[in-house]
Amino acid sequence: MKKCSRCSKIATLHITEINDGKVDELHLCEACAKMYLNQPPDNLDEEFPAVEAEFNELLEEEDSEESLAEEVACPSCGITYKEFRSKGRLGCPQDYIVFKPQLLSLLDNIHNATQHTGKYPKRAPEASQKQFELIKLRNDLNEAVQSEDYEEAARLRDQINELQQEMSDET
Amino acid sequence: MKLDELTKTSGEWLRGSGPETDIVISSRIRLARNLARFPFPNRADSATRKEITDLLGTSLKELDRPNPLYVWDIGSLEEVDRQLLVERQLISRDLAEKEGARAVAISYEENVSVMINEEDHLRIQVLNSGFSLDECWESINQLDDQIESKVTYAFSEQFGYLTACPTNVGTGIRVSVMLHLPALVLTKEIQKVFQALQKINLTVRGLYGEGSQAMGDFYQISTQITLGLSEQQLIKKLQEVIPSILEWERRARKALVSANREALHDQISRAYGILQSAQTISSEETMHLLSSVRMGINLDLIHELEIPTVNELFIHTQPAHLQKLHGEKLESADRNIARAAYLRERLGKANEEAE
Ligand SMILES: [Zn+2]
Ligand SMILES: [Zn+2]
Q1: What DSSP letter does each residue of B279-333 carry, written as one string?
Q2: How many CB pairs under 8 A join A and B?
Q3: How far is the CA of A9 from the centre of ligand 1 (A)?
Q4: pTM of the entire predicted model
Q5: Domain positions in chain A
Q6: What ipTM does this complex have?
Q7: What's the A36 CA to ligand 1 centre distance in angstroms?
């Protein structure tokens, strides 16, 4: 059994690193491997926490002192936030409203975001469809600006103005 | 459509056509969806779960599609048939093994499968051969619209499509591709791929199970974020990163050939020889040797065999498939004998056809 090169536990992950032709063998235990793999990248601007591994940790770590809030039960399915924390699964769609304050910080940790910007149901009322479209366009615009695609950004900006005009005309 | 027919065919996604099929086996997109007026499956009592299964099963059966969906009640299938569906990537191990009312809807070509009452009410999946994520998205987006015209999904303006686990909320999407990376495994560079992917928040899984040593050197690369990025952005993320992994694998293959062509050719030929003549062989050894042979075909070191045949052998030599072919339950030792016989027969045929 190889020992972890950073502490003395048994190593479970073996990594061969090749930097400029130099080969380094790294042997790491689970805890150190996690830290190693989550190290911020050198040359990537996008970084999020690794979702699945961290999800359970987040649930465990959460401040359990707010015991009152923990005991509030969903009127629809009866689940409490405490139960959710131990199981990792919500009970029903309503829970996103009932536990919204706690979920907001959890979602921000997992996804680095708290607002949906993707597809929306065709059945939604027209007014909210336009709202969704607007959110999506703003998100696209952000991306276009970040990737310095100014032509696309200009096009999106026009589209957003047009839609906003449409929406204010209606109200 | 009968389940028994599956053992004679292979899914469309294994046919080995489409872009980059020397390395990309398949592209897959799944969407998690839930009905607005029911608790999630883990919190639904058995009567409710039954109601959900019936409601969704009927809706899926009735969709007006060029490739209609056939619905199976998982609970009433025999164990070997449930296992067969797992081996063909049509249902998850979890759906096969859990209790209570649950079902799956599958298209005849096996590109579409919709699990009912897995972790969410619906897990919609589209699977295509090769590197073809745009086609997957087009097809699954359309199917999702069709289902949505029949039922009301749980959706919130802020959180998007609501799911039992907050890790899936928003788009409910997981975009993935299955890669065959034997040279990166041989040259031990695969860990670097893992690290690079982890840093941009993509995950890597082995073909079967969650372990890091994938069976047969198959790895599934997937997105994990579902909130704050649109479906197209997530698809693009994978489309941008996969070409560099392909490049990496091709470079490793070239390096192996130029370092010692004879040794590599020898290793591949021996693998092929064992598969053609073994009298008893385990599933692990089969996967391992087939992986060598698959790379051998792509490197033009084996000529009489074709990629779709090898792709199919990976699936058909799995336990449930062998038992279906034999028509009876086989213990592990007998399975190894049956597997060797099946391989001799299939590879013998391939040789005859080539001559
Ligand atoms: Zn350590
Ligand atoms: Zn609830």
Answers
A1: SS--HHHHHHHHHHHHHHHHTTS--S--HHHHHHHHHHTSHHHHHHHHTS---HH
A2: 160
A3: 5
A4: 0.81
A5: 1-38+53-69, 72-115, 126-170
A6: 0.87
A7: 10
